[in-house]
Amino acid sequence: FLEPHFRYKPPRKYIYKYVDRKYDVELLNQMTQFELLDTVLGDLHINDNREEVLTALYDACIHYLDDQIHDFYQFLDREGYADNTRIVVLADHGELLGESGWWGHNARIHNRLSHVPLIVYHSKMDSHIESSPVEVRSLCDYLIRCADKGLTATLDTSDVALVEQYGADTGIALGFLDKYDNNAEEYKKYE
Questions:
Q1: Alpha carbons 1 and 28: distance in angstroms, whole number
Q2: What is the DSSP letter of 163?
Q3: CA quadruple 118, 96, 99, 23: dihedral positive or negative?
Q4: Is the CB of residue 134 less than 8 Å from the CB of residue 157?
Q5: pLDDT tens by residue, 146-185
Q6: 132 near 155, Cβ under 8 Å?
Q7: Strand-pair partners of 88
Q8: Pairing, β 87-90 against β 118-121
């Protein structure tokens, strides 16, 4: 699933659970397509009303994603696979929603961007909250161990985790960043 993600466009039935109906879909589209992009790139500072609406759209995306995960689990259960399936839910990055004056996730390091959800679920596993950092890149090894050791496999943790400042998606915005940052050549090293 790609949600919740920048442009914050959940299906319509989720929007008005969070956003006041005085904002029609055309205005919301303008806000997410143009104003939010300008805000992410540093060209525009949004007012409190717009900030509230964009955050509400993000929440609507999360609600949509929650429902999709629920439906997927229900499908696994109906088909008889739920008790033999480990479900992993994670994010490749967080999202800034006005924290420190920033929106989006490109070209900066912030705790909100690197502290992301990681949920590992199996119907026969006990609940556990891991407080140590877990690098997303260690999940492949973990899933291989799951195939070998079953429910006894554990996640690799450490005192620190690698945070990538310049990801592949930063390259997509490279042309826009030239006018905001003198380090455009630095970004190109990571394409």
A1: 22
A2: -
A3: negative
A4: yes
A5: 888 888 888 888 777 666 555 444 444 445 445 444 444 5
A6: no
A7: 120
A8: antiparallel
Tokens 């079953």 sit on residue: 150
In contact, 49 and 35? CB cutoff 8 Å: no
* 20: three-class secondary structure by DSSP: coil
Sequence-ordered alpha helix ranges (H) in the chain: 12-15, 25-30, 36-40, 48-78, 111-114, 139-149, 168-172, 174-177, 184-188
Per the DSSP assignment, residues forming a β-bridge with 119 are: 89
Which candidate, 175, 171, 163, 162, places its Cα nearest to that of 189?
Answer: 171
CA angle 169, 66, 35 (to 5 degrees): 45
Confidence of residue 77 (pLDDT cuts 50, 70, 90): very high
Local structure of residue 88 (DSSP, 8 states): E
Q: From CA 164, how far away is CA 47, in angstroms rounded? A: 30
The whole-number pLDDT of residue 34 equals 66
The token pair at 51 is 């900030």
Task: Return the structure tokens found at 169.
Answer: 């998606």
Stated pTM of the model: 0.75
